[in-house]
Write a structure and sequence with these properties.
The complex is a heterodimer of chains A (380) and B (356).
Chain A lengths: L9 H14 L6 E7 H9 L10 E8 L1 H4 L2 H11 L4 E5 L13 H6 L4 E3 L3 H10 L4 E8 L4 H14 L4 E7 L2 H10 L7 E4 L2 H6 L5 H5 L5 E3 L4 H17 L4 E3 L11 H10 E3 L2 E4 L3 E4 L3 E3 L8 H4 L15 H5 L31 H26 L1
Parallel strand pairs in A: 1-2, 1-7, 3-4, 3-5, 5-6, 7-8, 8-9
Antiparallel strand pairs in A: 10-13, 11-12
Chain B lengths: L33 H16 L10 E5 L2 E10 L5 E2 L2 E2 H15 L2 E13 L4 H18 L2 E10 L7 E11 L15 E4 L5 H9 L17 H11 L3 E5 L5 H13 L2 E5 L7 H10 L13 E4 L4 H9 L8 E7 L6 E4 L5 E3 L13
Parallel strand pairs in B: 5-6, 10-13
Antiparallel strand pairs in B: 1-2, 2-7, 3-4, 5-7, 8-11, 8-12, 9-11, 10-12, 13-14
Helix pairs in contact in B: 2-3, 5-8
Classes of the chains: A alpha/beta (380), B alpha+beta (356).
């Protein structure tokens, strides 16, 4: 398969891993944060940690849109779903995220009309096909998905579809990276930069990370070879004392981003003064709401949503894991009260969440191997 | 996964304390993954079949006046009714025939139950009944009888079909998770994931097209060739339907307590299935198959067994995909040729629409 097979070539991967081992300076440790949840998933899915020297620690960042959504916002979406006129539409990975009174999936099983869509345009089509109902699209995601929401709203406006609205939970990546760098407990040496987000915003918005914060950042693709190449590029920068924005994913990411997508977003959205991020608190200028030009299609204006701030279950340490302070298995609930089947925190729900990725691809092996070692010791 | 006992059980009193805690049934309980297993093991089996540590297999083996026969039952609720490569009629026969085959039995007869929705076109029904007749003839199995019910319009997706099958156990074959040993090889009869992805695309929700068709077929000739070649060296078989290869092998790992190590690069997957899975974030190991089976064979017969499969029409793409190891205990992992490894877990939740 083109654009996949060449980036999973065992020989090239082995070569890149060798280079990383050569570049890692003895006695030095490296804390590299992959900002993007897609990278977290790929690292576990392809077992890349097995290939890295122990001196390199990959810290999982906040780039999983489902994970950073606070519970209060999920409750707001569920409140809309309870209205019998409403068809609530969402991406599949939202379905199992717990709100205070259940998940979208549980609401659906109780009879609310909740449907999975693969694109916001599907939600708009659903509205056109059901003129006597109101279709709400529960929009989530970074700059990766915001343009498709924007284009859908432009089409809804052009076609005059009045029974459709968007519950915008779109967030932006730069303020989140800033919050991480401002956080006193963070010690990050360099960043594996977002891939899909950068196809929209380009590489320029990261320049301050290099110039002002003196941290290297490499915009990176999602295949095993992409990630290893980019880790080697970061190590080379650190070794040479450079801090620059580099673009490993240039087969997809243009340096200046996607102008058409940015223009659509600028027309449809405006920045919220502040927005709550799960585990990270309120971050200013970090999220998008519909501009006044699209007020008619804004679910928050059309529905009286509770808008109540809900604190996370006390024992769950999602915040610490989201910021990379704790590793997933270090959370008190990990693997016992909180599992992908019965998630307490959102990090255990989305395939991009670091807890779900660790649980799915690593946890059982670690446990099983420990059991084997202890059973061998017992028989010896 | 079926609600099938592989031995005699004593039914406990119906007030036995249950561990099933899910407040209501969701689609995930029918998806063949962890939730399905919980529903069966924690609610249905304890109340109807008693608490036995015995693993649940694809077919029950019962002794009737000295003759040992295999019995199994399966329901089919797929939408759409027809899809590239087959239809609900084909599935209803092949699914049950395959459950008997991988239990080491030669399918003999089927009972067929229809639940029809008022308003269903007779032409559509006729086409499905004909498809069932053709599939039964092809698999060498007789239709012995059945039942028909009709429900109000809107209460069923046009039609549901349940088939119950009986088979005669093949001599010299003894299949059990407990006979699997470290060093045994894992064989698969052909490319995986075709059925599930074909149905997903046939529903048309995705605006994706691929040159794919369902793999629905009887695996009887392939199982016969394997058993002929490897005899008692065949330890265990399963057709990986809902929940896919990952679920079938996780059940085996749990039942035998051993590690199953797959070679990621050797898994046979058509490009169309791979592409759709990459795009949708699915794992081909979780996708349903309706015409493939997995076999665990002793290492000394593995090469002969594989050669017998590849020499049988329809088995050309059979592959040795991995081995059984002592560790990691009760876990399935996939290794890449560049030295990375990952756990292959059962499907969590409901990744796909109704597929069988």
């Amino acid at each position: 398969m083109k654009y996949v097979d060449e980036f999973r070539d065992p020989q090239l991967i082995t070569k890149a891993a060798d280079e990383i081992r050569r570049l890692a300076e003895p006695g030095r440790t490296y804390r590299l944060m992959e900002v993007c949840g897609g990278h977290t998933h790929a690292i576990y899915r392809f077992g890349l940690k097995d290939l890295l020297p122990p001196a390199i620690e990959l810290v999982h960042g906040p780039g999983c849109p489902v994970c950073v959504l606070p519970m209060g916002r999920i409750d707001d979406g569920l409140a809309m779903a309870e209205d019998p006129r409403v068809i609530l539409t969402a991406f599949g990975d939202m379905m199992r995220v717990p709100g205070t009174k259940g998940s979208l999936l549980e609401y659906k099983a109780r009879g609310c009309d909740v449907r999975i869509v693969y694109s916001p345009l599907d939600a708009l089509r659903l509205a056109q096909a059901n003129p006597d109902r109101h279709v709400v699209f529960f929009a989530i995601g970074f700059e990766t998905t915001a343009p498709s929401t924007a284009l859908t709203l432009k089409r809804a406006k052009a076609l005059g579809v009045g029974n459709f609205s968007v519950f915008s939970n779109h967030v932006t990546i730069i303020p989140a990276i800033r919050a991480i760098l401002d956080s006193p407990d963070m010690r990050i040496d360099a960043f594996v930069g977002p891939g899909h987000v950068s196809t929209v915003i380009g590489c320029r918005p990261y320049e301050w990370i290099a110039t002002r914060e003196h941290k290297p950042i490499v915009v990176t693709g999602f295949e095993p070879l992409d990630l290893l190449q980019s880790i080697a590029m970061l190590l080379r920068q650190l070794r040479e004392g450079r801090a620059e924005v580099e673009n490993q994913y240039n087969r997809v990411v243009p340096w200046e981003g996607n102008r058409a997508a940015l223009e659509a977003m600028a027309d449809v959205f405006e920045r919220r003064p502040f927005f709550e991020w799960r585990g990270m608190g309120f971050i200013s200028q970090s999220a998008l709401r519909l501009s006044d030009r699209y007020a008619e299609w804004d679910s928050e204006k059309r529905f009286a949503v509770p808008g109540v701030q809900v604190t996370d279950p006390k024992a769950a340490q999602c915040g610490e894991v989201l910021k990379g302070v704790l590793r997933p298995p270090d959370c008190k609930l990990f693997g016992t009260e909180c599992t992908p089947e019965h998630p307490v925190g959102a990090l255990m729900v989305s395939s991009e969440g670091s807890c779900a990725a660790y649980y799915t691809y690593v946890h059982r092996k670690v446990v099983a191997e420990a059991r084997w070692v202890s059973s061998r010791q017992a028989t010896a | 996964m079926g609600l099938i006992s592989t031995g005699d059980r004593v039914v406990e009193h119906a007030s036995a304390k249950l561990t099933f805690r899910d407040p209501r049934i969701e689609m995930a309980h029918g998806a063949g993954g962890k939730a399905s297993r919980r529903l069966i093991e924690e609610l249905i089996a304890p109340l109807l079949m008693g608490r036995s540590a015995e693993p649940l297999g694809d077919a029950a083996i019962v002794d009737v006046g000295g003759a040992r026969i295999a019995v199994t039952s399966d329901s089919f609720v797929v939408t759409p009714l027809r899809f590239p490569g087959g239809s609900i009629g084909d599935l209803a026969v092949n699914g049950t025939v395959n459950d008997l085959a991988v239990a080491g039995a030669r399918p003999v007869g089927l009972l067929v139950t229809f639940v029809l929705e008022a308003g269903l076109s007779s032409q559509v029904l006729e086409a499905e009944v004909r498809a069932m007749g053709d599939a039964a003839r092809h698999a060498g199995v007789r239709i012995l009888g059945g039942d028909t019910k009709v429900v109000e319009h809107g209460k069923a997706d046009l039609m549901y079909v349940t088939t119950t099958g009986f088979g005669e156990l093949l001599p010299g074959v003894s299949l059990a998770a407990s006979s699997v040993r470290p060093g045994d090889r894992v064989l698969v009869s052909g490319p995986i994931g075709d059925h599930g992805i074909t149905i997903l695309l046939a529903r048309g929700d995705l605006d994706l097209e691929a040159d794919l068709s369902s793999d629905t077929r009887s695996v009887v000739p392939l199982v016969a060739a394997l058993v002929d070649a490897a005899g008692s060296g065949v330890r265990w078989m399963r057709d990986p339907t809902r929940g896919g290869v990952a679920t079938a092998l996780n059940e085996l790992a749990r039942d035998c307590g051993l590690g199953i190590v797959l070679a990621e690069d050797r898994l046979p997957v058509h490009d169309g299935v791979r592409g759709a899975c990459e795009l949708l974030g699915l794992d081909p190991l979780h996708i349903a198959n309706e015409g493939q089976f997995l076999a665990i064979v002793a290492p000394e017969v593995a090469a002969t067994a594989l050669a017998a499969l590849t020499a049988t029409p329809g088995g050309e793409f059979a592959v040795d995909i991995g081995e059984i190891r002592e560790s990691p205990i009760a876990t399935v992992i996939a290794e890449t040729s560049y030295g990375g490894s990952r756990v292959v877990d059962m499907l969590v939740g409901d990744a796909l629409p109704r597929i069988c």
